[in-house]
Amino acid sequence: MAYQNFNMDHQWLPFTPNRSFAKDPRVFVAADGMMFTTHDGKQVIDGISSLWCVAAGHNRKPINEAIKKQLDTLDYATAFQASNDQAFVAAEMIAAMAPGDLNKVLFCNSGSEAADTSLKVALAYHRARGEGHRNVFIGRERGYHGVGFGGMSVGGIPANRKAYGTAFLPRVDHMRFIHDPLHPEHAGHAYIHGEEPVWTEDLLAELENRILPLHDPSNIAAIIIEPISGSAGWYLPPQGYVKRLREICNKHGILLIFDEVITGFGRLGCNFGADFYGVVPDMLNFAKCVTNGVIPLGGVICSDRIYDTMMGAHSNAPEHAIEFFHGYTYSGHPVACAAAIATLELFKQEKLFERAGQMGKVLGDAMHSALMGLPNVVGIRTLGLAGAVELSPIAGTPSKRAFDIFMTCYHHGVLVRPAGENLVVCPPYIVEKEHIDRIVNVLADAIGQHA
Ligand SMILES: Cc1ncc(COP(=O)(O)O)c(C=O)c1O
Asked: Residue 53 C-alpha to ligand 1 middle, in angstroms?
């Protein structure tokens, strides 16, 4: 495709260095399968599923056709005091995939909205039980739950918080991060290949012995975690951590929320991170892969217990009374739900989650064998169909090395993701070994160039 001349003066780009982008733009104009076409006619491998979204690869006909058909049938219908047929079907399919008693889907449009929705459900649920004083939320250092005020407050990535201090929710605390390279006894966690890190230290002792007593467990509404810290750079929890967190929450009547915007829908070779860790949360947030990224859709899958409590609290209220004052104009948008139905069917038909598990091993092998020992590499973590290589920072300019490597990879036709000092690779589940080899070799060369 020929170079397309367009005016770039008016789009303010999100989470992007706008000044450097203007000098060296990266603009996609077409995509198919694993590949993008850029504005200047180059082919680039999508090594990050377009930010963890495009699990089935680009330009999948069944999804596109479902969207077109839906547009011609029911383009949109209000979500309040009414609904649409597609939303019920999509909710049923999602609930069927979710573990345990996670059966009630509240739709929204993004991971950020899912985070804020889940926090609001937690507050409303406790109030419905007569425990409205439970209003403390616990997140984790370097967690990412989107950019709404709630998600940002429980989130723990310093750069995302720095400018907004006065706007945080007032009663939020954070657990320690799940990676601690400074302690030699944890040095073995720098290189993780498909297994769970084993810590000698009990990482949740801090929650039990400091954070819970400080706030008093009876005041804590919910703990929210990403089962694996995705945006921070694919950091894995210690063995037993997720299960024990569930036990602690049970003991104190605290709700456990899994933010599975990244780990949901197959990235770990199974439906959800909850399945991978064998733990059922009280709420599970999803977005991204549910529509293959093609059209915005997110949601929170709530337990029957939460839903029943919310309905039960209104048993004496008149039937026209709304039980939960929350929702978005586009909650359960019929076109997005039609895309979700087609996507989830495609995942099943092509057994894409199993494939993600199989190709994850190929990716892990390739990253560990090609990148270990390269200059500045201080860690490689692979699990499921995702991996991160961590580099030592350039003194005084944090994250620059990773950014420069990302740019070099792009110029050699491979899209990877810089995340702090990490480069993350998380390709679509349709990825072939040749793509993985190309991604990893280009990454290895770029790491060498920026030594
Ligand atoms: C775990 C997690 N939660 C929430 C979000 C925010 O999602 P969105 O950008 O769709 O608002 C993301 C985005 O990457 C995420 O990884």
From this structure: 10
